[in-house]
Amino acid sequence: MSEITRVVLDAMGGDHSPGEMVIGAVNAVKEKKDLFVYIVGKSKGIKEVLEKQEYPKEQIEVVEAPDEITCHDAPVTAIRTMKNSSMVVGLKMVKEGKADGFVSPGNSGAILVGGQVLVGRMKGIERAPLAPIVPTMDGVSLLIDCGANVDARPSHLVQFAKMGSIYMEHVVGVKNPRVGIVNIGAEEEKGNALVKETFPLLKECSGINFIGSVEARDFPYGAVDVAVTEAFVGNVMLKTLEGLSSGLVKKIKEGLTATPVSTIGAALVKPQLKKTLKTFDATEYGGAPLLGLNGLVVKIHGNATRKEVKNALFQVETFKKQEINEKIKDYLLHESKEKEEK
Amino acid sequence: MSEITRVVLDAMGGDHSPGEMVIGAVNAVKEKKDLFVYIVGKSKGIKEVLEKQEYPKEQIEVVEAPDEITCHDAPVTAIRTMKNSSMVVGLKMVKEGKADGFVSPGNSGAILVGGQVLVGRMKGIERAPLAPIVPTMDGVSLLIDCGANVDARPSHLVQFAKMGSIYMEHVVGVKNPRVGIVNIGAEEEKGNALVKETFPLLKECSGINFIGSVEARDFPYGAVDVAVTEAFVGNVMLKTLEGLSSGLVKKIKEGLTATPVSTIGAALVKPQLKKTLKTFDATEYGGAPLLGLNGLVVKIHGNATRKEVKNALFQVETFKKQEINEKIKDYLLHESKEKEEK
């Protein structure tokens, strides 16, 4: 029998909490025998949903946490003071080695802070980047870092490139992923101070497939597999993509049903349109991993439903089976050896 | 008779040069009696197009410039060495006071460098930002700065906010425009070092309608009229918007004609879809102005056609008639007085 992966699922803090969280967990354990899920949160509500489901009881355990960190709570204060919140209780279980990973739809800032403070960074990792999988015209790409650690240094970006490469290759399954640095032009001399300093470091970096600068315009076309950038820029890029695509789709749908004739047409194009828009659905890849920690922390969308929850749980399993943290450690070890030899 | 506005049009460097440039100029002078256009570039080709047009001859003059700066030329070197290029010749005419503004579809970097070096910044202006008008779900917004002046300081961003406000109010016609700073969260304490330093300065800035942070996600919905940001971030935002919208539209069009049934539907929705997508067409606002110079420099798209050219020429006229630079000067004068009084 293969090794069990244990995941803590934060049932609170999402738009569809706890219902969709619980059903996502149920669907996950029904599909995978070697998965064990701790569902953390207000146990009364969780159990009410669970009781209505059929599933292998030995693969799910409910852990009581009476408090809930909401999107209105200030991250640092929340993590420091709300000891009985589902997030703090859950992250501590990863810290203590009771679980391999943590999945939450809750307050992003609190997840980022909690991941770093409670679970802790791996030795040698300077920063833990948030690296969402972003759908493109050509598949998916990893955008690293979109977190809250703004004003990064070149050495941080180099680590992001390495961790992102490993993740993309071994969790998402892209061979020899193309790594690019987000820039405002294709030429090496372009960019701000951070990019100009980082570019040569990435160029001489062994073990990654660095292809140079990537312009934001080409990112949605899948120009790179791993786009490396500082968190402020990454966050702006990600939010721009999310805002525009939801806005455009809304506007197009409105336009399609504006007249009686177009409404008939809309009915005829609907199945194809749905199929097209589905290619931009990243929920099948799970959530955004926070990399470089002593365990995997995954942020899923606030409005995540059962499918994204299930896939995020599987994501932790793949992360563990592929020994991603061991691979990151090996890489860093290799790096420090290289430095010593120089 | 009202005062004449004189504009230099760079006929070279665009995908449709010189044909669409020339026809744009012809259409412009046919509509406005008080507009005079110098068309600069390889005069043989320009005249060949002009000869086939009917227009008031006294409103257009062709200026010979045998060289052309292409998108492959390094901006600084090109501006310094290609004295006979249409861009250098044209920008110098603005510098010498022969024209009020300059419109070009050419090499963006060269326009930015040339504007600053040849036309020159107004006294008191620290940086000249590139401020494109971006279509949103709700109209248009100004995104300032999207240029090449990366790594800005807080005082630069404050000037951008002021100049952007004046432009949006008096050229685009938005009353009391809402100004926001691009940020990764809505709260004042969010952001990188630059944003945190700039936020309080904008808050206490008199004469602008500062409404706080704007998240990139809300920008496409028209959350602000003027979005202030450092050029690297602005450029990434702009390019992300351009890349994703063109990609999405392409993908949707492909999807619509994927099956026989959807193709019939597509024919029925086509007029409405066209109308919807037209709301995202910013060409009617002309090009992206480079603000804070001794004259208006406007960058139009490399693939600009006659309509965008015409509207960019009108844009220079409005800029002059509305005395934008005088308004900017007044503001700065007011600002230095305020500082003295403190």
Question: How would you sum up this structure, described in words?
Answer:
The structure is a homodimer. Chain A is an alpha/beta fold. Chain A is built from eleven helices and eleven strands. In chain A, the strands form two sheets. Chain A has a six-stranded mixed beta sheet, with helices on both faces. A five-stranded mixed beta sheet of chain A has the order 5-6-9-7-8. In chain A, helix 3 crosses helix 5. Chain A starts with a strand and ends with a helix.
Number of strands of chain A: 11
Helix share of residues of chain A?
40-55%
The largest sheet of chain A has its strands arranged as 3-2-1-4-11-10
User: Looking at the chains present, what oligomeric state does this protein adopt?
Assistant: homodimer
What is the overall shape of chain A? globular
Specify the number of helices of chain A: 11
Beta-strand fraction estimate of chain A: 15-25%
Major sheet of chain A: 6 strands, mixed
SS-based structural class of chain A? alpha/beta
Q: Would you tell me the overall average pLDDT of chain A? A: 91
The Rg value of chain A, from CA coordinates, equals: 21 Å
Return residue spans of chain A where pLDDT drops below 50 for at least 5 consecutive residues: none
* Largest interface between protein chains, with number of residues from each side: A-B, 59 and 60 residues
Span from first to last CA of chain A?
Answer: 45 Å
SSE succession of chain A: EHEHEHHEHEEHEHEEHHEEHH
